[in-house]
Amino acid sequence: MLHPELISMENEVFRVYLGWTAVLVLKIFAMGILTGLTRFVTATFANPEDLMSPKLKVKFDDPNVERVRRAHRNDLENIVPFFIIGLLYTLTNPSVFLAVNLFRAVGIARIVHTIVYAVVVVPQPSRALAFFVALGATVYMALQVILAAAF
């Protein structure tokens, strides 16, 4: 049975979900900007019309640009599923404490993942830990949605 009150600003779980979703949307946009800045700084452009000088050539293999692009792709592969499952998890009427902390864990872990992967490169296991914290929280929510659906 769907409870419409679960999707309202009066529901703290939904409100926190909205907040972290907005933060992560901005984070994804920031990754696009970071990719562009990195291309500009390294003079690595993928399209001929973007070349700022006839001396430059199209280039696809700058390690700095590729690192930022991989971090961006990793966000898209992991944050978008969180958007979906986080909303569905909100509909299961979870514990406020648990849900709020799961959403925080995903948001903070994804931000840390980007910092240690694409901004200030830190050796492993830093990136793996950030990745698995967010993944674990998202998988937990997915399992709770499956259990609540009881199909």
Automatic annotation (TrEMBL):
Classify the protein's membrane topology as the record does: Multi-pass membrane protein
Q: Which UniProt keywords apply?
A: Acetylation, Endoplasmic reticulum, Membrane, Mitochondrion, Mitochondrion outer membrane, Transferase, Transmembrane, Transmembrane helix
InterPro entries given for it?
A: MAPEG-like_dom_sf, Membr-assoc_MAPEG, MGST1-like
Read off the Pfam families from this record. Answer: MAPEG
List the catalytic activities from the record. Answer: RX + glutathione = an S-substituted glutathione + a halide anion + H(+)
Q: Does the keyword Acetylation apply?
A: yes
Which gene holds the coding sequence for this protein? Mgstl
| Protein's cellular compartments | Endoplasmic reticulum membrane; Mitochondrion outer membrane
Residue stretches spanning the membrane = none
EC top class, as a word? transferase
Role: Conjugation of reduced glutathione to a wide number of exogenous and endogenous hydrophobic electrophiles.
Question: How would you summarize the oligomeric state and partners of this protein?
Answer: Homotrimer; The trimer binds only one molecule of glutathione.
**Which source organism?**
Drosophila pseudoobscura pseudoobscura
One GO molecular function term? glutathione transferase activity
E.C. number, please? 2.5.1.18
Q: Give the domain of life.
A: Eukaryota
Protein name as it appears in the record: Microsomal glutathione S-transferase 1
Q: State the family it belongs to.
A: Belongs to the MAPEG family.
**Gene Ontology CC annotation, any one:** mitochondrial outer membrane
